[in-house]
Protein 1
Amino acid sequence: MLITKTDYLEYTFCRKNLWLRKHKPELFVDVEFSDFEKKIIEDGNLAEAACRLLYPEGVLVESHHGQAVIDTKKVMEEKKTIFQATFQEDVFYLRADILCFNVELGGWELWEVKATNEVKRKVPHHHVNDLAFQKIVIEACGVKVVKTGVIHLNREYRKNGKVVNCELFIESDLTGEVTAAEEQVKGEMMQMKECLTLPEEKGCACVYEGRSNHCSTFAYSNPEVPEYSVHNFNRIGMSKKKLIDWVDRGELALTDIHNPEDLNAAQKLQYESYVLGKAIIDYGAIKEALGGLVFPLQFFDYEGYSSAIPMFDGFGAYEQIPFQYSLHIMGADGEIEHREFLITEPEGDLTLPLIERMKLDLDPNGTVISWYSSYEKQRNDKLAELHPEHASFLKEINDKMFDLMTIFSDGYYVDPAFKGSASIKKVLPVLVPELNYSVMNISKGDQASERWEKLILASTSASDKEKIKRDLLDYCALDTWAMVEIYRVLKGL
Ligand code: SF4
């Protein structure tokens, strides 16, 4: 069994998960990468390809496994810069992003390319430990490593014309930190090697963590934990002591807990609605919140796109580009009107036509209603930065924006079926069961982003473009229509 640097990083995050991956791969067969995870991988590959352009003399080792180790040695004899230099020592195996010879220091520089805006020093993406693992293995193969570092994206860079790779990427020399981390990493590598030869551990550490920390194998490792358990309590990760106490006492279902009086306000509502088996509604608070809204009510939602290598002028790495909006307008008489905008031909000033349409479609006197409004507000702030001439309009919208999600996140309406969440994907099926995202061709934001990327590609056929355009408009319209219907249900209370 070979152990790669990805395995090592995984081990430092969760040794049980690594053990299962190595010994019970069948548990991961049905676990597909989400569109978001796929995009991260793709962004990483694109950043690595772009970064290689900074080393035009570099040679890529294209072979794999044993052959790649042999090919690496050959290229190293000529002291050329190497991409994907491959090493194996004992069970440890790695492919280094960039290795280049430093004549002055008489040894090799090891550079790791990361599609991140900074050096990360926390598991599971600990860049220093990642490099230390590589340095240990490479030096054990008899190669002198004189410098180690990360080449990552420059968060200050904004595209202006052609992407300038030497400005987009920054070198962070981590030689000192990596050397200091070596002893600890060596110890972890030995422990990891031993751990993988041991029998399977029972349970796993996440039994003491909130639901958001659990990976796909949690139910396998902890079959005694019900699907809706004390781990689902709102923000239970912040009250670890309580969770540990319940788990140690074997109080795993919400109804098992011995001390409901110790729950915080949000958790208490969640608990009570679960015990009662029905929603707990604060009619007065909802009436007051909705009573402050000014007609016309404008239910508004953006869809956004981001990429590691910025694609559009004015934007930097991973900056969200609003490429679409949907707007349902409700007059005081209850009449509804729908407006929408989608960038289909990204030419010239990308976002100016979007703002110009917003100015025609939105009435700054009425309340703009969104769900998780900090997302919409941040997009408006970015648009204002790019187009200062429209800043006052965008600021006015932000100042008057109402976040419909707060009705649920502030505990004015708590239903056991929300399972402690205030996400629209959890709220909508309970309040408006006839509206359903699962029947849509696009049902999630990251999928919309991936589809838009395809829509603007010159190589996409006209008929595919037409279909994607329809799907995107339908998806975004459902987001705002869902808000209209949720508002109506709340108002009807
Ligand atoms: S649920 Fe948590 S502790 Fe258990 S295997 Fe997954 S990540 Fe590790």
Protein 2
Amino acid sequence: MSGTAKVLHYRAQFSGGRLAVRIGTQFQSRNIININVPGSKNWRSARFMSKGISAEIEKTEKAELHVHTSGSVTPEFLLKWGKDINWADPSYPDFAKLKYIEKKFSVSLTEIFRKDDLASLKRIMESNGDKGEGLEGYLARMDLGHRLLHNNLPAWRALANDIAVNSYTKNNVTYLELRFPMIKPLLKPEEIVEAVYKGLFDAELECPGLKTAMIICTIKMFSMEQAQNIVDAMIALRKQAKYRARLIGIDTAGPEVYRNPQGELEKFDHEKFKIPFALARADGIKVVNHAGEQFLSLEDGLEAIRNSVEVLGAVRIGHALALGIDPGSLQDKTDGYGKYYGEDRIRALQAAQEDLIKFLIERGVVIEACLSSNTQTQPEMIPAIDSHPLGKWISKGLKVVLATDNLTTSHTDLTNEHLLAAGAFGLSMPQITKMISNGFESKLKNNNI
Ligand SMILES: [Zn+2]
């Protein structure tokens, strides 16, 4: 039980003095249920939850539809693969980000790898769960993974394999859609896709019944030309049967509000990618989209969700927090433009949310809810799991699936996300099972290859 102390700070207490902790995957004993609760200060204990439900969730076959490569590099994996990297090489284009990490965590990356210092890597790479740290801090934790993947194709292959095999063996994930950007200055897009494909293919051979697919992430701050280049590369690759069957989704990731090359604050304009994404769809590529996770005003967040569907043709939306947070909670606050949320505006926003929910239900659009990630990146909106809109979405009839977003950065896995949902919203096993089947019903891959 050496790992117990590590997670005591989550303070997830169960009735009868039982302690709920999640350490790795297999840690179970008589009175202990595995669960890892980020931002748990206001989290009500899941008194109803039995070890039976926990075991049932763990053994049920699951589909993971929203998980990124760079945020799922485990500290153990990085320690093994990062030894040959010169962490002090200033010619690495994002060297400043590595220096920032060294300063923020008071570490020397060179020393960490020299001393095999796994504990320090964990501290850097895993969101600690005590409190949200905002999107910026969260994304910084992925920079070590980005450095590894900068120019190392064998690491890409091994990572894809590691994520798939671990998800399968530890969480019974039998269907996986893995997301990654295929733009790395020193690697060709087709090389990255081939490496990921091979890693996933090996995993399928190793894990009976496992099926996998690939989703390419464009980045919201890209120009239309950059998005078009990615789509062109995908379409060219998809002329090969092996990719046509597996390279099946496109996404826009990254901050929804960012600084443009002129240094001005800019929100993502879905029209910018309308043509490239339409061409992708014409080739049979499906669109999934990060939207409504981060916004200057709630109106912007709702608009981003609607535009994902109307402009880009998204069939699933990642995060969609704007759709669920209570507009009433914004009373007496100002938005990112300095505009006041008055009573009339709040009423209009409530109506707009209801309209959008109806619209998404009519269109059959699915929400990918990432509970841990949302508490970590959006602590003001989602200070704890039970303030997440998941419960509201389910009661409104939206089709929702749970996803991890980033296994390492969010310090979670798919079983844990379901346990969090069950605990925070008092979901019954049939409700949990329904969300799990939503995952298989919403997969992008429609064949048996
Ligand atoms: Zn994501």
